[in-house]
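note to self: the first set is below, dont mix up w the second
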Amino acid sequence: MKSATHLRSEYLADLTMVHDKIVALANAIPADKYAWRPVPGVRSVSEVLMHVAGEWYLIGPMSVGAKPPADFGVPREAMAKLEQLTAKDEVLAQLEKSWAHSRAAIESADPAALLGRYEPAKMSLARAALRVAGDQHEHLGQLITYARAVGVTPPWSK
């Protein structure tokens, strides 16, 4: 159980760093650039940010056997609805709300329930954490590229 507690703690620390950088970028990118996309058919800035929020509502909690908020709805529909939000203030609010839910779910996960393969992920905490963290880092890299493309230097790079 000690190893599951340690892994959960390290997982949360990594996701917190990703969260902090994504929110810093979301704040640094001007509102008029939220509709920017590198090419047609690729997610815009706001769509990427809301995709990440959707993952914080759904995938983060599921990675430790928890559920999205009761009002989240059907995942595919809820994710699509989130990605329609484009106003910077709404996007920032959803980022914070979704992160609070994900963080609380990960912090409160019972380490004993994370040993071996657990529901609903049907995989170990280590595998779930690596998959989710890897995906979150990929979106962070995508947002760094988007920010630089619209003339924004990531705040931690100055």
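second set (the one i keep forgetting abt)
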Amino acid sequence: MSVSLSDLNALPESEARSLLLRCCGSTRWAGMMASARPFASPEALSDAADAVWLSLAEADWREAFAAHPEIGGGTPAGWAAHEQSGVRNASGDVQDKLAQLNRDYRARFGYIFIVCATGKTADEMLGTLERRIANDPGVELAIAAEEQRKITQLRLVKLLT
């Protein structure tokens, strides 16, 4: 579902929060964004989204991460299906490696591998996962949060399209 900015601004807060949760799975982020309306422009919405995201605690980030399907894990729905389309035609070997490294990543960091997958091939995502799994947990959390920020920005554009 997409809406105009004026419609988003006019929605009851609970409905706006529900729509915004489609863009970012952090309930705190969605609530703060719904409360921050009205937005004067799409750019103001984008700027607010970044500011709110950066103000959140680690638990809020992890909640947003948990709202995503794993890269290559099962059949994602909605926007995630399009975002992860690069995995659909990957070889069985690449899909198996993604699945195993996703399990290893979750065991190491406590959350799923987050990457802004739009436009990336399965091989690119696998290479990124192979590099990032060796990161220090604090460094990786910051990288994952930045990837989530990018995903949220793309989804806000989709929401308003």
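remember for set 2: The chain is about 70% helix and 0% strand.
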